[in-house]
Design goal:
By secondary structure, the chain is mainly alpha-helical. Among the domains are: 232 residues, no CATH class; 138 residues, no CATH class. 61% of the residues lie in helices and 3% in strands. The protein is built from 21 helices and 4 strands. A 4-stranded parallel sheet has the order 2-1-3-4, sandwiched between helices. Strand 3, helix 19 and strand 4 form a beta-alpha-beta unit. Helix 5 runs antiparallel to helix 6. It is globular and about 80 Å long. The termini are far apart. The model has no long low-confidence stretch (mean pLDDT 90).
C-alpha cells in the first residue's frame, strides 16, 4: 500500500509538466495551422512582422504600413508604447518569418504555466494539488490566446513572476536581494509590454493588501479615513502601495505623455478621433455580458468562497468591459485578457489558500467543484472546442482547422512556395495585398494592405494588387475598394492578381472545389505567372500617384 501511494504521488507530482507540454503544443499547432491556412492578418501579425523587419534593416523605427494607412503614423511607438519589441528585433533579423513570432506565444504561455505552478506550490504549501492547479490553468478559455501575435502576451509570465517574488517577500518573509531585484526588473519589463500594463501592478498591489490584511474591507477603509491611519497603512504596506502608485503613474505617463509625444497628432489614438469613438462606444452589451458570465462562471466558485479576492481581477476586467465596444476586446481567446488571466488565477489560489485548515475537506471539495465547472465552460466556449458555437469565441475549433487543412493543404503549399518571388520585385512596385496575405509579404517596406480594420484603404500607381477569391468576404471587401479607386482615379500601372485563379489556370483544378497536389510543375507555373506580373509592373513604372 505504501509503495502504491508513493507511486501515485510520484506520477501526480510530474503529471503537471506533461499537461503543460500538451497544452503548449496544441496552442502552437492552432497558431501554425491558422497561419498556414492564411487566417492570420495584417492586423496584427503582419504589422508586427513588418515593424521588426524595417527596424532590423534600418528602414524605419518599428515602421509598418498598416498603421501608416490607418493612422498616418511612421512608427508603432506612435500607437502603442511597446519598447519590448526592440528585444525581439535581433531574433527577427536572424529568422525573418512570422512563424517565429507565433511560436513565442506558446513559449510564453508554457513559461507562465510553470511559474504559476511554482507560485501555487508555495501558496498552497505543497505539490499535492499540482494537477488541479495546472488543469485550472490550461482549461481556462482565456488561456487559449490564438489571435495572432501581440507583445502583450509576453507579459503573462512576467505578471506571474512578479506575484511569485512578491509572495516570497510579503507572505513568506523572504526579503532577500534576489527577490527584491526580481520584482524591480520584472516590473520594468512588464511596463515595456504595453501602455496599460501598469494596471497589472495596481491589481497586484491590491491583491497583496487583501492577502496580508485580516481585517474586513470596511475596517481597512475606515482606518484609512484619518491622516494617521493612512500613514500607518502606507508604512505597513510599502511594497503594495508602491505597486499601486507605480502602476497608476505608468498608465498615465505612457498613455497620455509618451505615446502622444511620439504621435504627430499629440494624442493617444485610441481615445481620440474616429478610432476612439469605436473603442468608447457603449454598444455591444450582449458580448460584454457573456464575457462577464464566462469569467465569473469559471472563477466564481473559488473566488466567491472569499469574495474580497474578487477585487484584484475586477480591475483589469473593468478595462476590458469599458473598451469592449470593439468586439475583439471581449472575444474569448484574444490577447486582451493578458492581465485578467493571471490576476484571476492567482486570486483564485489565494482564495483557496484561505480555505486551508486542519481538515482539507473544504479545500478539496471546492477544487473538485471548480474543476467540474472549468471543464464544462472549456467544452462550451474554449477556442479549441467551442461546442456552443458562440460567435464571441476567436477562431474556429481545432477539429475544423484540421479538417480544412486536409482539403486545402496542397493549395497552401503552392502559395507558400511561390509567393516569396514577389520579394524580387522592384521596391517601386508596391504590393497592395488582401489582409490575410500581408503576413507572407511583410518583410518589405512597400507592402501595403488593401483595406484596414477600420475601413481605410490604399492604392498607388505602380501597384501589384494581390487578392484571393478563396476567402470570399475578404476578397469582396478588398475588390470593392480596388474597383472604387480604379474608377475614381487615374492609375496606369496597376496589376491585379487573384491567387485562386492563377492556381486554377496552372493546375486545371479549382482549389475551392478539389484538393490540389503541390506538384513541381504547378508551383513553377504559378511562380512564372507571378514573375510575369512583376515584369509588367516594372516595365511600366511611372511617377507614383494616388495613395491612402
Amino acid at each position: 500500500m505504501w509503495r502504491r501511494d508513493a507511486f501515485y504521488k510520484a506520477i501526480t507530482a510530474r503529471l503537471w509538466i506533461i499537461l503543460l507540454v500538451v497544452y503548449a503544443f496544441e496552442l502552437w499547432l492552432r497558431l501554425m495551422i491558422r497561419h498556414w491556412l492564411f487566417l492570420t492578418g495584417a492586423f496584427d501579425l503582419g504589422l508586427f512582422s513588418q515593424s521588426l523587419w524595417t527596424t532590423a534593416h534600418s528602414e524605419g523605427l518599428l515602421f509598418n504600413t498598416p498603421e501608416f494607412i490607418e493612422l498616418g503614423v511612421k512608427s508603432h511607438m506612435e500607437v502603442h508604447f511597446q519598447p519590448i519589441l526592440f528585444i525581439l528585433v535581433p531574433l527577427y533579423y536572424l529568422y525573418s518569418r512570422p512563424e517565429l513570432l507565433l511560436t513565442l506565444v506558446p513559449i510564453a504561455m508554457f513559461v507562465a504555466g510553470v511559474i504559476f505552478y511554482l507560485f501555487s506550490r508555495d501558496a498552497l504549501e505543497g505539490i499535492e494539488h499540482s494537477v488541479y492547479v495546472i488543469l485550472f490553468f490550461i482549461l481556462c478559455p482565456f488561456a487559449w490566446i490564438t489571435d495572432d501575435f501581440h507583445p502583450s502576451v509576453l507579459a503573462v509570465p512576467v505578471i506571474f513572476a512578479i506575484v511569485y517574488f512578491a509572495h516570497r517577500i510579503l507572505v513568506m518573509g523572504d526579503s532577500s536581494p534576489s527577490n527584491k531585484l526580481g520584482v524591480i526588473l520584472l516590473s520594468i519589463l512588464l511596463l515595456s509590454t504595453k501602455e496599460d500594463a501598469g494596471i497589472a501592478l495596481v491589481s497586484i498591489g491590491v491583491l497583496f493588501i487583501l492577502v496580508r490584511e485580516r481585517r474586513s474591507l470596511w475596517s481597512i477603509l475606515r482606518n484609512m479615513a484619518s491622516i494617521k491611519g493612512l500613514r500607518e497603512f502606507c508604512m505597513a504596506h510599502q511594497l503594495e502601495v508602491t505597486f499601486i502608485l507605480v502602476g497608476i503613474t505608468s498608465v498615465i505617463v505612457e498613455t497620455f505623455v509618451l505615446v502622444p509625444m511620439f504621435n504627430p497628432t499629440g494624442h493617444y489614438p485610441f481615445l481620440s478621433g474616429d478610432v476612439g469613438k469605436i473603442y468608447l462606444d457603449l454598444d455591444s452589451f450582449y458580448l460584454r455580458a457573456i464575457y462577464i458570465v464566462v469569467w465569473l462562471g469559471y472563477f466564481g466558485i473559488p473566488l466567491l468562497k472569499n469574495p474580497r479576492f474578487l477585487i484584484p481581477p475586477l480591475i483589469p476586467l473593468a478595462e476590458i468591459i469599458v473598451m469592449g465596444s470593439w468586439s475583439p476586446v471581449v472575444a474569448i481567446g484574444t490577447h486582451y485578457s493578458y492581465i485578467l488571466l493571471p490576476m484571476s488565477l492567482v486570486s483564485s489560489i489565494y482564495a483557496l489558500r484561505a480555505l486551508r485548515s486542519s481538515e482539507n475537506s473544504p479545500l478539496l471539495k471546492t477544487m473538485r467543484f471548480s474543476l467540474g465547472m472549468a471543464m464544462m465552460i472549456f467544452l462550451l466556449v474554449a477556442p479549441p472546442i467551442n461546442f456552443s458555437e458562440y460567435i464571441g469565441v476567436w477562431g474556429t475549433s481545432s477539429y475544423t482547422l484540421s479538417s480544412v487543412w486536409d482539403v486545402w493543404d496542397g493549395y497552401m503549399e503552392i502559395l507558400d512556395e511561390s509567393l516569396p518571388v514577389f520579394y524580387e520585385a522592384d521596391r517601386r512596385c508596391a504590393l497592395v495585398v488582401q489582409g490575410n496575405i500581408f503576413p507572407r509579404l511583410a518583410n518589405r517596406n512597400t507592402t501595403y494592405v488593401v483595406r484596414t480594420v477600420f475601413g481605410n484603404s490604399y492604392l498607388q500607381n505602380n501597384s501589384i494588387v494581390i487578392v484571393d477569391s478563396l476567402y470570399g468576404r475578404l476578397f469582396n471587401s478588398s475588390m470593392k475598394v480596388i474597383n472604387g479607386r480604379l474608377q475614381n482615379g487615374s492609375y496606369s500601372n496597376v496589376q491585379v492578381i487573384d491567387l485562386r485563379q492563377v492556381v486554377y489556370r496552372c493546375s486545371g483544378q479549382d482549389p475551392a472545389m478539389t484538393p490540389i497536389r503541390p506538384e513541381d510543375s504547378v508551383v513553377k507555373c504559378v511562380t512564372e505567372t507571378f514573375k510575369h506580373y512583376i515584369h509588367r509592373c516594372e516595365s511600366q513604372l511611372t511617377e507614383v500617384s494616388g495613395n491612402g
